[in-house]
Structure formats: structure tokens, C-alpha cells
Amino acid sequence: MEVTKKKLKKAVDKNIISLQQADALYEFLIVQPESVPRFTFTHVLYYLGGLIAIGAMTLFMNLGWESFGGAGIFFISLLYAGIGLKLSNSFSSKHLIIPAGICATFVVCLTPLAIYGLQQYIGVWPDETVYKDYHRYIKWHWLYMELGTLAVGTFVAWKYKYPFLIMPIAVTLWYMTMDVTAMISGGDVTWELRKLVSLYSGLLMIVLGFLIDIRLYKKADYAFWIYIFGVIAFWGGLSFQSSDSELSKFIYFCINLLMIGVGVLLVRRVFVVFGALGCCGYLGYLASDVFKDSLLFPIALTAIGFTIIYLGVLWQKHEKAITQKSRSFLPLSIKELLDAKS
User: Fold this and answer.
1) CA-wise closest residue to 50 among 221, 172, 167
2) Residue 2 has what pLDDT?
3) 3-state SS, residue 334
4) Helix, strand, coil abundance in the chain, percent, nearest 5
5) Structure confidence at residue 31 (pLDDT)
6) Cα–Cα 20 to 30 A to 112, which of 9, 72, 153, 189?
7) Which of 118, 126, 23, 14 lies closest to 75 in space, CA to CA?
8) Which residues, 6+ apart, have CB-to-CB distance to 263 below 8 Å?
9) Cα(290)–Cα(90) distance, integer angstroms
10) Count of other CB atoms within 10 angstroms of residue 306
């Protein structure tokens, strides 16, 4: 929970602490190094600068760099990585955890570029594709870059233990599932196959994120980025499935409702956001296709909406008793995770 002057003033008004204590506590807290991202101007600057630097060496890499040749690309990547590690260690020594984590992540994001340059340098690059295509096309030979990124990312995450380091690992896992599919299918990746791979790989990433959450929630939020890309892959693969069956469309709606429930339970907004998008999509389909000429559909939908609001009122009234009863049946590790997030 974010501590603000307004909240401390309310505590003063209720005689919980004195005005002098509130001022002293606020002054103490604002000078403490923050390890959890907040929506503040300082943190926006941290991430804006970091993402620009990372994007420059990944998504926005242009063909001009090809003029350096494989050796040039490889050694420049090593130079940039050295600068990133130097900055990360410098920020860490000053207890600036967030910029330290961003700089360490920058180093991991350089890995595929360095491997690409090395492969070009030693003459084992298999075709005419260039690094710029890495983030655009599915190719089996990206696997060397992805395996290297996973190895470097895992080592750096183990050494520095910054949660933001999980971001490039999650992205690489997402890329890797598609490229492995291309290798297995001999390069003939159909749209239907892509959707299925996205669906099941996303589901596996969600499970992985949950297991990480259970084991490491006391230390830091290492599961955040795994959940993000897992949900995107799963929901995208699910939403693009084609079906003429009303039952399958209703099941899709139920799965999105379940995602909202899981998101609330785990306090993960990404599940709620994508689940809500899926539910709205299904209701929009009902309104425009199934009940487009029905006068009662908007009325029924309004009644359902108010019923849900009333269920929310009942839930708020009995939440503590329901939560305690339901969690008593869960394994201890899951119960502790949910209690920590309550």
C-alpha cells in the first residue's frame, strides 16, 4: 500500500499518531529506496529510459548495423553489455534497485544480437535473414539465439535477483514456442497451428507463473511477467479459435469469467482485463448476431448486470467468512500465497 500525506493525516485525525510523528514518518519513508514499481514520475522516467534503450537494441534495430559485419556486431554487443553491467552494479551500490534491474535486463536483451553477430562472424548463419527479422518472423534458426538468451537470462536473474529480469525470459519463451513449432513442422506453420501453439504455450506459462508465485512470493514478484505473456498467449490463441457452435462460444465466455475469478483471487489484473475483454466480446456477439432483433435482450442484460452488482454486495458482506471457509480446503502453500495477497 502506498503511504501518502493524506492517509497519514487521517491517522492523525483519529488520534492514532501525532502530527509530529506523521511528518517524521513521511520524511523517513520518502527517502527509502524503492524496490517495487510505483506510478510516480521518477519510476516513469526509469522505465521510459530503459525501454527506449532496450528497444533500440531489439525492436528498432535497423539494417545500418549490418555494415559492421558479424564481428563488429558481436564486439559492440559485448561493449554495451559491459556498460549495462557497470551501470547496474553502480545503481545497486546506491540502493537504486529499479534502475539497477533495468540495466541488468538491458544486458540480457543484448544476448540474441550478440549470438547473431557471432554466428555471422564464424560463418554458420543459415540464410539471408537479418537480426531485424528476429522480432517479426518465425524461423527455426532463431532457436540458437533464444536458447542463449534463456541461459544468460537465467544466470543473470539468479545472480542479481531483479524481478524485471524475468521480462526478457518470458518474451523468449513465447518466441521459442513458435520457432520450435516451425522446426517440428518443417517450416509449414499454418494459422490454425499457430493458434493452438499460442493457446497451450500460454497455459503452460500461466502454470509456470503460478508455481513461481507459490515459491517466491515472499521475496519479490518474479511471476509478474510470466503471467503477462502467458495470459496474452493463452487468451489470444483462445480468442482466435474459429467455431460455429453456440456451445463452444458459451464455453469461451465461461473461460473468460473464470479468468476474472482467478485474477481477483491471485490479485493479478492481467487476468481480469483480458477476461473482461472476452466477456464483452461474447456479449457483443449475442447483441449483434443472436438477439439483434430482440426487444428483451437489453432488458435481460441490464437485469443480469444489476444482479451481479447485488452479488457483489452480498460478497462484500460475507467475504471474510466465505474466504476463510474456502481456503481451509486448500494446500498450505496456496493458502499462504492467497493470505499474503489479501
Assistant:
1) 167
2) 61
3) helix
4) 80, 0, 20
5) 54
6) 189
7) 118
8) 269, 270, 271, 272, 273, 275
9) 61
10) 9
Phi, psi of 189 (to 5 degrees): -95, 105
CA distance 233 to 59: 19
3-state secondary structure of 216: helix
CB-based contact 105:168 (threshold 8 Å) = yes
Rounded mean pLDDT for each run of 10 residues along the chain, 342 residues in total: 69 77 69 60 82 84 81 93 94 88 93 94 88 85 93 93 91 88 73 84 93 86 91 92 86 92 86 89 79 74 79 78 76 78 67
Query: 168-198 burial string, b = 16+ CB within 10 Å, else e?
Result: bbbbbbbbbbbbbbbeeeeeebeeeebbebb
Which ranges of 57-190 does DSSP label H, i.e. alpha helix? 69-93, 97-109, 111-122, 143-160, 166-184
Residues 6+ apart with CB under 8 A from 281: 239
Phi-psi region of 267 (alpha: psi -120 to 50; beta: other; left: phi over 0): left
Dihedral of the CA atoms 8, 9, 10, 14 (nearest 10)?
100
CB atoms inside a 10 Å sphere around CB 282: 18
Q: Which residues contact 293 (CB under 8 A, 6 or more apart)?
A: none
The SS3 assignment for 219 reads coil
Q: Do residues 143 and 180 make contact, with C-beta atoms less than 8 angstroms apart?
A: yes
Give the separation between CA 276 and CA 65, rounded to whole angstroms.
43
pTM: 0.79
How far is residue 297's CA from residue 303's CA, in Å, rounded to a whole number? 10
User: With b meaning 16 or more CB within 10 Å and e meaning fewer, what string describes 33-52?
Assistant: eeeebeeeeeeeebeeebbe
CA distance 11 to 28: 17
User: What distances in angstroms separate CA 130 from CA 17, 112, 116, one per listed residue?
Assistant: 63, 12, 8
